[in-house]
Amino acid sequence: MPTSPTAPSAPIDLTERKLLGVIPTGPGAEGIDITPDGREVWVANRAADSVSVIDAQTLDVIETVMCAGFPIRCKATPDGQRVLISCATAGEVAVFDRLSREETGRVTVLDRGEGGDLGPIGVLITPDGTHAFVANSSRQEVVVIDLGTLDVIARLETGNVPDGLAFLARAPDVVPLGDGPEPDVEGATGH
Question: Domains plus CATH for the chain?
Answer without folding.
Answer: 21-167 (2.130.10.10)
